[in-house]
Amino acid sequence: MRAYVLINIRPGRVREVVSAVSQMEGVRHADACWGLPDVFVYAETSDERKLNQLVIDKIQKLEGVERTETHIAVE
Q1: What is the pLDDT of residues 9-44, one digit of tens each?
Q2: Residue 37's domain is classified under what CATH number?
Q3: Residue 73's Cα: distance from chain center in Å?
Q4: In 3-state terms, what secondary structure has residue 68?
Q5: CA distances (Å), 13 to each of 23, 36, 39, 57, 63, in order?
Q6: According to the model, what pLDDT value does residue 75 have?
Q7: Three-class secondary structure of residue 39 per DSSP
Q8: Domain extent for 7
Q9: Which tens digit of pLDDT belongs to each residue from 47-70?
Q10: Number of structural domains in the chain
Q11: What sign does the CA torsion over 54, 55, 58, 64 have?
């Protein structure tokens, strides 16, 4: 399952969040960007359960993360 996770982060925490997210299982690439969202993440997981764990249990619980928006690739 491939997905793009867009993350809004409190000011001053972007580098920390990118570093932490980059090390998570399933994350293939994470980039800090100007504007909103603050971070774009490309993730690949074996199934929906693993994607849920990545986004809900890991990314959303990081200090500084205010909001995520997940877009699942369909092809």
Answers
A1: 999 999 999 999 999 999 999 999 999 999 999 999
A2: 3.30.70.920
A3: 14
A4: strand
A5: 16, 14, 11, 19, 8
A6: 79
A7: strand
A8: 2-72
A9: 999 999 999 999 999 999 999 999
A10: 1
A11: positive
Beta pairing class for 27-32 and 39-44: antiparallel
How far, in Å, CA of 75 to CA of 65, rounded?
28
Neighbour count for residue 38 (Cβ, 10 Å): 23
**pTM of the full structure:** 0.94
- Using alpha carbons, select from 57, 56, 49, 59 the residue that is nearest to residue 27: 59
- Dihedral angle computed from the Cα positions of residues 24, 26, 31 and 35, in that order, rounded to the nearest 10 degrees: -100
Contact 62, 54 (CB under 8 A): no
